């Protein structure tokens, strides 16, 4: 899909709060948008390095907790009679902290887990998310455990002339998510359409051959994990300041699964895949809500997923790209790599 | 003058099996050296040890005087020593042009900052790599196939792409593992011409090949391996007359036609 199409899409989305100022529509789109950012980050790992992280919600949750705690402030004992104290910080500091903490854990997991690949990586990532959930449940002094962190301040933005403006309204939250989502998309695009992106795809397609031409495995996989975790952390931070209450359930497996479904049905290893898959599976539960009982909804959800995987195993975006006439340019190689041609 | 590659008393074990028992030879800069021997002699294993895919149990391997012990394949490639694979190895689902660009990894240096900011230096590098990729494809005669996926190439074309990938970053020393395997006579002739051109560009070549006619014509020196040991080492004319080589090849006379004659 061309850049023009992409910017049209962003412009159309940006116009939604003006055209349909319906708070319900906006809240549904905002939540979907947050998960789409999560899916975009997962796609960098799953789609471009081929590594399946089934603990991706861990980075999302880390971003959510780190951002919430930094903006709420905390005062906890860390043993030996010492205390660690932080006064409440502006939300944007929390946002950056969320990205940094998630990114740092991404680095750690990247270094650790890429020594073991495939199934072992999957198992390690699952455990990682579970361990974090247990920590969030039991470190009550810091996280309030199952009582949840409440009263998280809304996101704010510094605007020239107006100072720091809290984003309370639905349209404001929506635009913020759209903005961060666009940035996440562009970041992934820049990385994927570069020497780094080629190295990642080379490692995914044939690691032995990739190493023989000098591509450093750990180096590139760690870059991908850190970026992926950082973006997931940003999504988690947006989530925390949007719903303004978080509990240890942000680490639940189901959130990871939701993101994996979005990426796979949309088309892993394509830039638009997580957006398309995210729109379908992020919006469908809410679209069905009024018209069908919950059981029927879940069945519809499952059936659609199975049908998509059966009939479009590579996902929706590659299938649609295959229907369009291929553009012929002297070297449309990147386009061919990013959006598989017929 | 020290040799470009020095292999000294290298032994490699795979499981309990001694695949290479005691291997010593050198490759001088600018030459084409062939490593020959019957199937299972340990040639591919020797390549794996030299390029860091397997750890020798004993011995030393030096490239440009530097000990390669403990270095990973990617580090060894960065030093200028790249190998091709006996079994066709390509980035299947990617286009031929993409394959070439991936193989040019070492010819670029832009990192994360360059990728994110698209600074002029990074754009220039991308343009240069694009040109080099086309030049490489031109060199192996695959320009017309640049936009098809590597999977969909004919077998002979895939073999040529494999050589192109190994040669792309212009390594000082190129290890080719049976580049002509499965090729018909005219393709084999093309392959030989390609190797000659690479040598003329200044690439030193260590070749493993079963086509003896090709080996005899192209090599400056031949090292003969049998059951993990070297049994002969010399120029083609000498190897052809070597009684031990003839004995090792008896029964597989196809391999040394001149010796059998
Ligand atoms: N991965 C492996 N596992 C077990 N044995 C192997 C493996 N690779 C090679 N070998 C054995 O090592 C010996 C040398 O093999 P190889 O180096 O492939 O020989 P060549 O390339 O000269 O035909 C053979 O006996 C072969 O069976
Ligand atoms: Mg072999």
From TrEMBL, chain A:
Extract the GO molecular function terms from the UniProt entry: branched-chain amino acid transmembrane transporter activity
Q: Which domain of life is it from?
A: Bacteria
**Main localisation:** membrane
- Keyword Transmembrane helix on entry: yes
Q: GTP-binding: is it a keyword of this entry?
A: no
Where is this protein found?
Cell membrane
Q: What membrane topology is given?
A: Multi-pass membrane protein
Biological source species: Humitalea rosea
Q: Which GO terms describe its cellular component?
A: plasma membrane
Question: Which keywords describe this protein according to UniProt?
Answer: Cell membrane, Membrane, Transmembrane, Transmembrane helix
The name of this protein is Amino acid/amide ABC transporter membrane protein 2 (HAAT family)
Parts of the chain that traverse the membrane: 24-46, 58-80, 92-110, 119-140, 174-192, 213-239, 245-264, 298-324
- Name one matching Pfam family: BPD_transp_2
TrEMBL record, chain B:
Q: Where is the ABC transporter domain?
A: 5-252
Keywords attached to this Swiss-Prot or TrEMBL record, sorted alphabetically, are:
ATP-binding, Nucleotide-binding, Transport
Q: Name one GO molecular function term.
A: ATP binding
Q: Does the keyword Signal apply?
A: no
A GO-annotated cellular component: plasma membrane
* Presence of the UniProt keyword ATP-binding in the record: yes
Kindly give the PANTHER family that the UniProt entry links to this protein: ABC TRANSPORTER ATP-BINDING PROTEIN, CONSERVED COMPONENT OF ABC TRANSPORTER FOR NATURAL AMINO ACIDS-RELATED
The name of this protein is: Amino acid/amide ABC transporter ATP-binding protein 1 (HAAT family)
- What organism is this sequence from? Humitalea rosea
The taxonomy runs:
Bacteria, Pseudomonadati, Pseudomonadota, Alphaproteobacteria, Acetobacterales
């Amino acid at each position: 899909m061309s850049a023009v199409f992409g910017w049209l899409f962003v412009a159309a989305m940006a116009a939604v709060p003006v055209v349909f100022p319906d708070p319900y529509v906006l809240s549904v789109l905002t939540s979907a948008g947050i998960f789409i950012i999560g899916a975009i980050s997962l796609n960098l790992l799953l789609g471009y390095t081929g590594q399946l992280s089934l603990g991706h919600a861990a980075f999302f949750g880390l971003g959510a907790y780190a951002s919430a705690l930094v903006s709420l402030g905390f005062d906890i004992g860390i043993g030996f009679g010492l205390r660690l104290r932080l006064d409440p910080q502006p939300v944007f500091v929390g946002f950056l902290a969320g990205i940094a903490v998630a990114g740092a854990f991404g680095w750690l997991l990247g270094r650790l887990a890429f020594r073991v690949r495939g199934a072992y990586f999957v198992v390690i990532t699952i455990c990682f998310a579970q361990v974090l959930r247990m920590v969030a449940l039991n470190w009550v002094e810091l996280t309030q455990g199952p009582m949840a962190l409440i009263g998280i301040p809304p996101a704010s933005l510094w605007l020239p002339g107006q100072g720091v403006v809290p984003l309370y309204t639905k349209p404001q939250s929506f635009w913020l998510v759209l903005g961060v989502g666009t940035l996440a998309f562009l970041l992934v695009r820049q990385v994927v359409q570069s020497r780094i992106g080629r190295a990642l795809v080379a490692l995914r397609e044939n690691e032995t051959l990739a190493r023989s031409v000098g591509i450093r495995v750990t180096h590139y996989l760690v870059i991908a994990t850190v970026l992926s975790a950082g973006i997931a952390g940003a999504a988690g931070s947006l989530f925390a300041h949007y719903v303004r209450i978080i509990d240890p359930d942000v680490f639940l497996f189901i959130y990871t699964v939701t993101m994996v479904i979005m990426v796979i049905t949309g088309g892993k290893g394509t830039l638009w895949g997580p957006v398309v898959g995210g729109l379908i599976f992020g919006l469908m539960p809410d679209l069905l809500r009024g018209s069908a009982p919950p059981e029927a909804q879940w069945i519809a959800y499952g059936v659609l997923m199975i049908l998509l995987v059966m009939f479009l195993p590579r996902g929706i975006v590659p299938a649609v790209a295959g229907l369009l006439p291929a553009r012929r340019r002297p070297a449309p190689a990147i386009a061919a790599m990013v959006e598989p041609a017929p | 003058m020290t040799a470009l590659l020095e292999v000294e008393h290298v032994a490699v074990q795979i499981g309990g099996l001694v695949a290479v028992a005691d291997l010593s030879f050198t490759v001088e800069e600018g030459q084409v050296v062939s490593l020959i021997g019957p199937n299972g002699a340990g040639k591919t294993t020797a390549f794996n040890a030299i390029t860091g895919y397997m750890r020798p149990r004993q011995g030393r391997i030096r490239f440009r005087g530097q000990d390669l012990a403990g270095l990973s394949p990617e580090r060894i490639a960065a030093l200028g020593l790249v190998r091709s694979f006996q079994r066709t190895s390509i980035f299947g689902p990617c286009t031929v042009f993409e394959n070439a660009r991936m193989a040019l990894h070492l010819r670029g240096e832009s990192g994360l900052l360059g990728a994110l900011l698209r600074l002029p230096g990074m754009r220039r590098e991308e343009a240069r790599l694009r040109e080099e990729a086309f030049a490489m494809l031109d060199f192996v005669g695959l320009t017309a196939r640049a936009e098809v996926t590597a999977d969909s190439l004919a077998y002979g074309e895939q073999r040529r792409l494999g050589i192109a990938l190994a040669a792309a970053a212009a390594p000082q020393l190129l290890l080719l593992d049976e580049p002509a395997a499965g090729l018909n006579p005219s393709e084999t002739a093309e392959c030989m011409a390609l190797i000659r051109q690479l040598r003329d560009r200044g690439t030193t070549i260590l070749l493993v090949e079963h086509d003896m006619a090709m080996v005899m014509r192209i090599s400056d020196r031949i090292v003969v391996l049998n059951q993990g040991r070297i049994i002969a080492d010399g120029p083609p004319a000498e190897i052809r007359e070597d009684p031990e080589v003839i004995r090792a090849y008896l029964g597989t006379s196809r391999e040394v036609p001149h010796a059998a004659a």
